[in-house]
Amino acid sequence: MFRQFCHISPVLPFHSLAKVETRVSPFLQRETPRLRLTTITGGLVFRHGFAISPVVSSFTRVSSFRQGHSHFSNSRFRLSSLSKINTPNNYTKPIVGRWLLLSSGLVFGIVVLGGLTRLTESGLSIVEWKPITGVIPPITHPQWEEEFEKYKQFPEYKLLNYNISLSDFKYIYLMEWSHRMWGRMIGLIFVLPAVYFGFRGHMSRPIIKKVVGLAGLLGFQGVLGWYMVKSGLSEELMSTPGAVPRVSHYWLVAHLGSAFLLYSGMFLTGLQILRDSKIAYDSFPKGVARILANPSLNKFRRLAICVAMLIFLTSMSGALVAGLDAGLIYNEFPYMGKNIIPPKSELFSKAYARLGEANLWRNFIDNPTTVQFDHRVLAISTLCAITTLWLYSRRLMLPPKARLAINSVLGVSCLQVTLGISTLIYMVPLPLASAHQAGSLTLLTTALYLVHTMKRIPIKI
Ligand code: HEM
Known about the structure:
Elements: H1 2-8, E1 11-13, H2 26-31, E2 44-46, E3 51-52, H3 94-119, H4 141-152, H5 155-160, H6 166-200, H7 205-233, H8 236-239, H9 249-280, H10 286-292, H11 298-323, H12 344-347, H13 363-366, H14 368-393, H15 400-425, H16 430-453
Antiparallel strand pairs: 1-2, 2-3
């Protein structure tokens, strides 16, 4: 009966459809496969699987929408509680969320591999950018010799590595090659499923927009990576007295920053899709939704976002430390020389002002002492902010996952600060420095997870 109605009428009364699960006709199935109605207490159901109910106590479950138009025009009826999520333009399959989380995991991996590439000083070993043909590394001895000869033309070899052997070169080359290959792999694992999901209609329009934005950021990341390498190949380094053959720290910050943003975007969007799908399938715990609806959590919610931003900022200042090799000076903590704060003349040195005293601010980005000091200050401020947030959270009623998240943020931040201090004291050994870098992304992950678990749920309870 219901099938018949669906064919002939765009609007149907369904007072009698409470707790009915139904399959629609083969014709409709093509448009809205697996339409199911549950516990609807009264209202209207529309073609393509919409429902509105004057009694807002439950909602429709609808999956795999294809149509892009809505029929919500009758203002006499309130939309069912999850209408925002359950419109054709707003439903995304959970597999898309899982794929985004997998992609974010791959980005995490490449950040760590990129750090290892930098720490082993391998980043400048491949002196060309060949996105397609660069997939195949040199194989035969003459091919290796040829690549080595190319490398010898650039400042890193001339100033620093003039006595490395071919086998040493092979090691640094393969490090950088793996980093680039991982980047290509992420490109494929991201773009191909994105196209597939797009064509199959598995993504809502807002998610399509986000995925397109993330794909753009991914491409941009590759371009930034190449410009960063190029900055370290510049011939200018040969003519600048005391210049160190390494990539520009500005490019390094940009490259790491955009990787962190890409990671955050994928991670948060993935989580959002999985959560929305739980809501749409009525498996999101109502108790949690009720707790999250409490207005007294608004302040905590805002502070959690601020903490995530502070972690991001501290990480970028860490990238400046890494880019300037500023971890190789003042290898002590909490002192920097005789005092906790180095002398003003050193923090604001005219040597870094370039064009006169008006440019003393350049010390913040160019002077290793100032950059390290800033990183210390930001890191300790981050730890204090997290501790305060954690103490504040003790007074609040939080959902279990949010409680787990804030506890993790505190735990990981303590570990991260310990790793940072150890990295500094032991003069940046590879395992500690790499763990410290991975720790920063882990800390950001816990903070993002906290922000996610604190999001209000669009259910009327
Ligand atoms: C919330 C705490 C912290 C965060 C989020 C953080 C984050 C970072 C990040 C992202 C990097 C760049 C890593 C790279 O690109 O390889 C870095 C580098 C560094 N950080 Fe931290 N850091 C924190 C605390 C500290 C503390 C307390 C210290 C020591 C006082 C410290 C010392 C260093 C040093 C020496 C480096 C340079 C390591 C290298 O050259 O590879 N960090 N930090």
